[in-house]
Amino acid sequence: MNIKELDPKRSLRAAYGASVRSSREERSWTQHDLAVRMGYGDAHISAVETGTKPPTLRFSRSADIAFGTGDKYERMYREMRNGVLLEGFPEYVEFEGRASEIRLFEVGIIPGLMQTPEYARVLAYSAVRRGEISPEHAEERVTVLMDRQARLTRRRPPMVFVVMDESCIRRTVGGREVMASQLDALVEFAERATTVLQVIPFESGERRSFDLPVNVLTLPDRSLFSYAESQYQGRLEREETAVARTLMTYHQLQAEALSQADTVALIAELRKGIT
């Protein structure tokens, strides 16, 4: 049998896979033995061990149960994920996954929860070309984003309100083909029963109430959290008065934005210009 050698020092994902393999072999288990214990297929175990497939939180918790390792693999997973996200963002993502309402504002790029994989990958690999992250981290960013998007289709999905600056849809990312697919995805997003999509036009000028991306979450118990970020750092705000002010400002932003019908019409018009 050919066993792929894995250098644990190459990346956090490689270290994770090597650790799973080591834990399995210490117990004299085959990949099939571990797959049965964890509820996964043999191929999935092999892909994680060789680093060709990133582990998920569910996989990590299942591994800890199977191996009796406490929270070892969950901690490795969180370390790996946190290494590719801005400071403050991993904690935000945890709350986002439980939110009953999500409000987003973005400038310059399509908000992550609506990005196609192709659009997201272009942005991630632009960071690689700038030397900010490794190709491994770029793929992790895309994986984290796709995991977040999957939560929007859960059995009881959250309401998602999105306001985008007009620059988000006019800035071409990844070329015409990628952008055409992304604009189509925005229209599909707006058609969902649990979403509201609005663009705030350039002509709003100084009436646009935010200059940086802002997210506001409402949890099932009606508690509120807000999140804002700069180029290299994010901040999760929990203080009730501060978040209430942010929510009020968000409502003012929505009032200045185009209606969803006008927003979709504008996106459709831009889409026609891409052949």
UniProtKB/TrEMBL annotation:
Domain HTH cro/C1-type: 20-57
A Pfam family the protein falls into: HTH_31
CDD domains named in the record: HTH_XRE
Domain of life: Bacteria
UniProt xrefs under InterPro entries: Cro/C1-type_HTH, DUF5753, Lambda_DNA-bd_dom_sf
Gene3D superfamilies attached to this UniProt entry: lambda repressor-like DNA-binding domains
Stated name of the protein: Helix-turn-helix domain-containing protein
Species of origin: Actinacidiphila epipremni
Higher taxonomy: Bacteria, Bacillati, Actinomycetota, Actinomycetes, Kitasatosporales
